[in-house]
Amino acid sequence: MAMSSSAKLSKVVKQQYMDLPQGDKVQAMYIWIDGTGEGLRCKTRTLDSEPKTIEDLPEWNFDGSSTYQSEGSNSDMYLIPCAMFRDPFRKDPNKLVLCEVLKYNRKPAETNFRKTCRKIMDMVENQHPWFGMEQEYTLLGTDGHPFGWPSNGFPGPQGPYYCGVGADKAYGRDVVEAHYRACLYAGVKICGTNAEVMPAQWEFQVGPCEGIDMGDHLWVARFILHRVCEDFGVVVSFDPKPIPGNWNGAGCHTNFSTKAMREENGLQHIEEAIDKLGRRHQYHIRAYDPKGGLDNARRLTGHHETSNINEFSAGVANRGASIRIPRSVGQDKKGYFEDRRPSANCDPYAVTEALIRTCLLSEEGDAPVEYK
Q1: CA distance 26 to 257
Q2: Per-residue confidence at 1, pLDDT binned at 50, 70, 90?
Q3: Is 0.85 topped by the overall pTM?
């Protein structure tokens, strides 16, 4: 398995420079989503003092023609800070700054789904929508071969790897542990992790997050994972079906509830929401991966703990359904439900916005409603 050349550079030598004092200056790493809707980019600027709020962070710009976001003849794009986290790589007082991207005319870039998501979340803030997203991913070498897999074959069949323990069952735990601790340091609302069904496949969970925070925290958690993998010399893939054949795909199961669902007799509100989702299945399929459903078509086959992409289904404790109601929720008659359709490479802003539009704003049809 191939590993990156950068990972072979001496970390001890690097550390003697990282230990140097930085005076009153602060390094702020600006992070944004590029034109693919999946890739992340970043660059760093020096600030004269530690920012305490988002308002303390200046706007910035970048060359959009090099990130699939503009033409070279009109390439300046704006970076608008929207969420700030502690930097687990450079440590305090340095910051990670998640940004929205605006075009030259100050309108949202094509892959900036945060702006409309924030608007939709503000419309239902009195219902206190909570989300929790289960991000699955696969560790690969730089040659695209799954981490730890035999170079000329396959590991043993699925069965012993889910939540597995031991060198022959858990592939790449060091990456997982480093990512978990880095997220906690940064202030990301990571709430758990586990090895998944396919070897070299893992999952971390983020939440509960209210409203727009869900997208902010998941994107920063992804960024941190990319950076941790960079240090270890491996690659993280969010492809929903990285290995064809009899191997599980990778999703981003999304748990959702409102205040009414979490209170007594909330099951009635959960069932009403599921009924609305059933009447708008294709709209959600298009919103749940960056290629309008084409990526998920490789994963949602009705096998390997997935539903069929062309059919909507719901059930209690059913991991082969589109929507799963946890058994405890069925017993308590309140709580939340899990939408199992989003792909691992989904945009969490698009997913959470779609859920609000259908479940709380009662939109119908194949297109989102435009609100003034």
Answers
A1: 39
A2: confident
A3: yes
